């Protein structure tokens, strides 16, 4: 149960947490599906919820609920990847996945934001692609039709399942690669190859782990490359971790978008700042370290300065 004097919605979310916690198995089933559908439905309407003001007990419940959601989502993806993999042409049956339409909407949203800053990326990485890499598939099929995609996941079995899905499509199989490695172990010379890196919401379910991944990317991505992150806003923060713009040291935050429809994730777009050593080697000085982007704050026409964050709501944002 939640702390005293919480509002009705938070109380409902805490009650759903208790019911989900009592489940023996989070694999897809009528009972599991019903509870998570109720949870997502409750979180969708806009709500002025500030997670920093929750009491300690409710914060613990929220953190645990995010972990449960992550486990259930992973099991759901494996379940449907197995089903899709049984078809001769798996990509012809993607609509069997119950949230496929949400992925189509999210990919369109992310592409509309991305093309303002990197319209024709040559090489794209997706970190945390999982057994059902729908974002990569939709992006490569519908939007970035000439880009090469490197998909990273720590789980080799997930990559094996994902690779099977695209094997029957010669174009995607040629442009998609799957790497079974912890992103923290991917060296800088590899990360510097990418024009755009997507970071999945389920990478780093604990915010401290996510920040370590972001720091690793910030140290090793090429200056000017784009980082696309998924966050959450309002009651949706009970489903996914929150990434605050102020946490993105080494990046210039370009825009933040908070959907109000059934697309759950917020989207954060950031550009890698110039590396300090790049300018030291060129004799630029004196150098001041920018407290907001963690890099240079001197002589680059504001490139490294934090932009005013654009917070848009639903259809009010024109991409």
TrEMBL record:
Pfam families: NAS
Similarity comment: family membership: Belongs to the nicotianamine synthase (NAS)-like family.
Function: Synthesizes nicotianamine, a polyamine which serves as a sensor for the physiological iron status within the plant, and/or might be involved in the transport of iron.
Single GO BP term: nicotianamine biosynthetic process
Protein name: Nicotianamine synthase
Membrane-spanning ranges: none
Domain of life of the native organism: Eukaryota
UniProt keyword annotations, A-Z: S-adenosyl-L-methionine, Transferase
Keyword presence, Transferase: yes
Reactions catalysed: 3 S-adenosyl-L-methionine = nicotianamine + 3 S-methyl-5'-thioadenosine + 3 H(+)
Stored PROSITE patterns: NAS
Species of origin: Handroanthus impetiginosus
EC numbers for this chain: 2.5.1.43
């Amino acid at each position: 149960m939640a702390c005293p004097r919480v509002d009705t919605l938070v109380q409902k979310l805490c009650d759903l947490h208790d019911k989900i916690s009592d489940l023996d198995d989070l694999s897809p089933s009528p009972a599991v599906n019903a509870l998570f559908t109720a949870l997502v439905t409750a979180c969708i309407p806009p709500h002025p919820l500030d997670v920093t003001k929750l009491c300690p007990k409710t914060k613990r419940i929220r953190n645990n609920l995010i972990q449960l959601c992550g486990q259930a989502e992973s099991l759901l993806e494996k379940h449907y990847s197995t089903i899709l993999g049984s078809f001769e042409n798996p990509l012809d049956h993607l609509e069997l996945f119950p949230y496929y339409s949400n992925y189509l909407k999210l990919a369109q949203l992310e592409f509309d934001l991305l093309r303002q800053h990197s319209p024709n990326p040559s090489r794209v990485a997706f970190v945390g692609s999982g057994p059902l890499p729908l974002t990569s598939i939709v992006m490569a099929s519908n939007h970035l039709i000439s880009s090469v995609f490197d998909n990273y996941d720590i789980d080799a079995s997930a990559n094996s399942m994902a690779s099977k899905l695209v094997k029957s499509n010669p174009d995607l199989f040629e442009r998609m690669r799957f790497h079974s490695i912890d992103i923290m172990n991917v060296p800088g010379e590899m990360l510097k190859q990418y024009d755009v890196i997507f970071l999945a919401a389920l990478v780093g379910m604990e915010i401290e782990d996510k920040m370590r991944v972001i720091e690793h990317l910030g140290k090793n991505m090429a200056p000017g490359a784009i980082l696309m992150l998924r966050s959450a806003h309002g009651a949706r923060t009970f489903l996914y971790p929150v990434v605050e713009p102020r946490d993105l040291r080494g990046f210039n935050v370009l825009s933040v978008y908070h959907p109000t429809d059934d697309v759950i994730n917020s989207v954060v777009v950031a550009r890698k700042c110039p590396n300090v050593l790049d300018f030291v080697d060129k004799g630029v000085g004196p150098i001041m370290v920018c407290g907001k982007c963690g890099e240079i704050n001197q002589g680059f026409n504001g490139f490294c300065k934090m932009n005013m964050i654009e917070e848009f709501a639903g259809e009010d944002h024109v991409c």
